[in-house]
Write a structure and sequence with these properties.
Elements (H helix, E strand, L loop, with lengths): L14 E10 L2 E2 L1 H9 L6 E2 L12 E2 L16 H20 L11 E4 L7 H9 L7 H9 L3 H6 L5 H9 L6 E3 L5 H14 L5 E8 L4 H9 L29 E9 H6 L6 E10 L12 H14 L8 E3 L6 H15 L6 E2 L2 H4 L6 H15 L1 E2 L22 E2 L4 E8 L3 E8 L4
Helix pairs in contact: 2-6, 7-13, 10-11
Pfam families: ketoacyl-synt, Ketoacyl-synt_C
Organism: Caldovatus aquaticus
Protein name: Beta-ketoacyl-ACP synthase
């Protein structure tokens, strides 16, 4: 994209990305992740953090914290989320060369998992119930007056802690929109800048939900792959033999900034967020409406917001979970929007697994790196093409390509769909 203007076709400020931070099962940091992803390496391994006896799925894309020992003390998901979030925000700020004094000139939008108390913490509360009161009354008694429960177990303090640490402005926003959460956080940041409410924002998606209860819940939905004997080959988006997604952890942060502000301070511009589109169908708690209208609508809304035609998209970063239904519905959306000649599409989840609340942010970050290096990451484990999904999925090996615009898809449970259009930096 070559432009001297700092406004889009709607008269809104163009939104630049000036910093990125990433952590996934492939490693810590942008360059480590990108090198592994484009080499087609998998971060999916056998679970060693907790016993997996009697679990149907015993593999995941785990992020091991620096001070964490396999089989050691169970770290609650909110603590895990906060530690990953601190790392990716710090990396993004360093790359953006902004907020070095602990005072960031804009708001914070944090995409996280839903409020949840995990089994180990529930049992600990039950054991510590006052006066041995049974059942629910005992749990209530144990929780009363426990600020630490709110802050470290119920996700309530994560955004506040991050805001205080990095000096963001205003009240931080915590949100969850299922698997679209990370993309929703980016959308909120973009819209705040477009409305003129902020010159910059931090948008974050993070998830550390790999624990027994979550695995059981997703297994009961028949959503998880059970290829435990070959973890690296389990995630097979768009393949005929796909049997479900692989749960994973990770985080990504983007520093969003008006292009005018970025240019004024001489900041590096990694790319532009040109369009955001969302559409919900409210059809089912887990399934998409078979007519695909919400998925199709989210893609079309993103393109319209960006002022682009379908033919302007050079590559699609797929939601691509590897479940039989999701991949089929994504193909339906692709065909409806792009017709008989859709652009190449590939799934990062074949390598990192499904990072759930983090996925939209992680995949937006990878989309920007795709533009930066003009290199399409592959969909690995693609051995048996599904004749019902005739797409160019960049099978097994990365590919050089001319990439000006990327569509990044995020389709969540409950019909919560968000699509982002990312563009190359202005020349």
């Amino acid at each position: 994209m070559t432009t001297t203007t700092t406004r889009d076709r709607h008269g809104r400020p163009l939104v630049a990305v000036t910093g990125i931070g990433i952590v996934t099962s492939l490693g810590w940091g942008v360059e480590a992740n990108w090198a592994a992803l484009t080499a087609g390496r998998s971060g999916i391994r056998r679970i060693t953090r907790f016993p997996t006896d009697h679990l149907k799925t015993t593999i995941a894309g785990l992020v091991h914290l620096p001070d964490e020992a396999p089989g050691g003390e169970c770290i609650p998901s909110p603590v895990r989320v906060e530690r990953m979030a601190v790392a990716v925000i710090a990396e993004a700020l360093q790359n953006a060369r902004i907020g070095d004094t602990g005072r960031f000139p804009g708001p914070l939008f944090v995409g996280m998992p839903p409020v949840e108390m995990e089994w180990p913490q529930r049992f600990a509360l039950a054991r510590g119930a006052n006066d041995g009161a049974p059942g629910y009354r005992g749990l209530v008694a144990a929780v009363e007056g426990r600020q630490d429960i709110y802050e470290t177990v119920l996700f309530g303090g994560v955004a506040e802690h991050l805001a205080a640490r990095f000096g963001t402005r205003g009240a931080p926003i915590s949100l969850t929109t299922a698997c679209a959460t990370g993309a929703s956080a980016i959308q909120l940041g973009v819209e705040a800048i477009q409305r003129g409410e902020a010159e910059a924002a931090i948008a974050l998606g993070a998830d550390g939900s790999v624990q027994p209860e979550a695995l059981i819940r997703f297994s009961l939905l028949s959503a998880l792959s059970m290829r435990n004997e070959e973890p690296e080959k389990a995630a097979r988006p768009f393949d005929r033999t796909r049997d479900g997604f692989v749960m994973a952890e990770g985080a990504a942060a983007l520093v969003l900034e008006s292009l005018e502000s970025a240019r004024a301070r001489g900041a590096p511009v990694l790319g532009l967020v040109l369009g955001c589109g969302e559409r919900a169908d409210s059809f089912h708690r887990t399934r998409s409406n078979p007519d695909g209208k919400a998925i199709i609508g989210a893609i079309r809304n993103a393109l319209a917001d960006a002022g682009l035609a379908p033919g302007d998209i050079d590559y699609v970063n797929a939601h691509g979970t590897g479940t039989p239904e999701n991949d089929k519905m994504e193909h339906l959306g692709m065909r409806a929007v792009f017709g008989d000649r859709p652009p190449p599409i590939s799934s990062n989840k074949s390598m990192i697994g499904h990072t759930l609340s983090a996925a939209g942010a992680v995949e937006a970050a990878f989309s920007l790196l795709t533009i930066r290096d003009q290199l399409l990451p592959p969909t690995i484990n693609h051995r048996e093409p599904d004749p019902a999904i005739p797409l160019d999925v960049v099978p097994n090996e990365a590919r050089r390509a001319r990439v000006r615009h990327v569509l990044s898809n995020s389709f969540g449970f409950g019909g919560q769909n968000v699509c982002l259009v990312l563009g190359e930096p202005p020349g």
